[in-house]
Amino acid sequence: MDITIFNFIQNHFHNEFTDWIFPYITRMGDRGLIWVMAAFCMVISKKYRKNGILLLGILVVTHILGEMMLKPLLARPRPFVTYPGHQLLIPAPEGYSLPSGHAASSFAAAFTLWKANKNFGIPAFFLAFLIAFSRTFLFVHYPSDILCGAILGVLCSYIFIKFSAFYEKKSKI
């Protein structure tokens, strides 16, 4: 199934516009940059400061779990390594493929923003989807890498938010 979806994307989605736009979209997710910027914007706002700090913590935890623990443990080669000869539209990323760090940070941030304010969450989920999709489009992740990264991100966010609420409630007693 992974290869079927992957091949469909590679064979049907490439054109002059998508080959131009998706490298820019993927760069927005590099090192979680867009999400870190969103968190800092929230920290500046008194109303959303707590959510911004929470988002920064969630991004750190998601990075540690995905990039530092799961990727080396699972050690799945990237598609361009397994299927050499494909012309990449971006510089070849280092490291392993599973889970996608771009998808993990994007969906962790989108879920956190959605919990903070539904009006933030809807465009954040749209951008998270585009960033995650760009990784398969650009031949650097399999669809299952994206799915696992998205699940990791949402789970990290959900657990971190629940833990934070529990700790905050407990500290008021």
Automatic annotation (TrEMBL):
Domain named Phosphatidic acid phosphatase type 2/haloperoxidase: residues: 51-161
Keyword terms: Cell membrane, Hydrolase, Membrane, Transmembrane, Transmembrane helix
Protein name listed in UniProt: Undecaprenyl-diphosphatase BcrC
Coiled coil: none
Keyword Transmembrane helix in record: yes
Record InterPro entries: PAP2/HPO, PAP2/HPO_sf
Main localization of the protein described in the UniProt heading: membrane
Claim: Protease is one of the keywords in the record: no
Gene name tied to this protein: bcrC
Signal peptide range: none
Provenance organism: Caproiciproducens galactitolivorans
Entry's Gene Ontology cellular component terms: plasma membrane
Membrane topology field: Multi-pass membrane protein
Transmembrane regions: 53-75, 120-140, 146-167
